[in-house]
Specification:
240 residues, alpha/beta, Rossmann fold, seven-stranded mixed β-sheet, 9 helices, disordered N terminus, binds S-adenosylmethionine
């Protein structure tokens, strides 16, 4: 459903974030079929310029809250959250076709009805959502873009935090994770300067230990196996 324009509707001057690869290995027949048959049913139709997307209207039930993950990879984390929180509606954003096909396989296998998918730059859906309309957001192991000339591609920077802060309601949680020391330092510098978020960690265990309601992804396990442990950041959206 399309409703009134948001106060900060999608602005064409804002940076696009479509840098990552769009497809990998050719999809197996089953995955290709899923992609062709299920994605059109579950894909989010973005509203035209100047209009906003009511996130509660895109699910086949009235969700108790709406969560969003940008860059879900193979979808293990968001599928786990969807199964563990059947009353929550989840917006899943990913540019990588093979990752979307993998999430569709989770949805089929596990009979999940509470996920809707943005195939493309997650910030396009973020900018289309109304102010304070999302209850929790995740950006886990986002690409670290280690070369200095690519730092402007990082999802979490001053602009990324502002765009996320607009859609999160007061007190909502933003969960970030990384296995890359340089990106961790970068994120913390931006978070600690941000007027919109508070980092809630009080002891090292709060960012070194994975919370029980935060499943590991294949990406995380592989990084840990290669000697790059994860850091888990939980931020709270400050009151407006
Ligand atoms: C390093 S992977 C991590 C995937 C997953 N979060 C995990 O922990 O396994 C980063 C993912 O973010 C996706 N991505 C990067 N920029 C994106 C954007 N602007 N919108 C949606 N997805 C994006 C990439 O395609 C990639 O799959």
């Amino acid at each position: 459903m399309i409703c009134a324009p948001p106060s900060t509707a999608a602005d064409p001057a804002r940076r696009s974030h479509s840098y990552g690869r769009k497809r990998g290995r050719k999809l197996r027949v089953g995955r290709l079929k899923l992609f062709q048959s299920r994605l059109p049913e579950l894909a989010i139709a973005l509203p035209g310029a100047g209009r906003s997307l009511d996130p509660r209207s895109i699910f086949p039930f009235a969700p108790s809250s709406v969560w969003l993950e940008i860059g879900f990879g193979a979808g293990e984390h968001i599928a786990w959250q969807a199964a563990a929180n059947p009353g929550v509606g989840l917006i899943a954003c990913e540019v990588y076709e093979n990752g979307i096909a993998s999430l569709l396989a989770h949805i089929e296998r596990e009979g999940l009805v509470n996920i809707r998918i943005q195939h493309g730059d997650g910030f396009e859906v973020i900018d289309a959502l109304p102010e304070a309309s999302i209850d929790r957001a995740f950006a886990l192991f986002a690409d670290p873009w280690p070369k200095a000339r690519h730092h402007k591609r990082r999802l979490i920077d001053e602009e990324g935090l502002v765009r996320l802060s607009r859609i999160l309601r007061d007190g909502a949680e933003l969960r970030l994770a990384t296995d890359h020391v340089g990106y961790l330092r970068w994120m913390l510098e931006h978070i600690l300067r941000s007027p919109h978020f508070e980092w809630t960690a009080r002891t090292p265990a709060d960012f070194r230990e994975r919370p029980a309601d935060w499943p590991a992804t294949r990406f995380e396990s592989k990084a840990a196996g290669q000697g790059r442990p994860a850091t888990y950041l939980r931020l709270t959206r400050r009151p407006r």
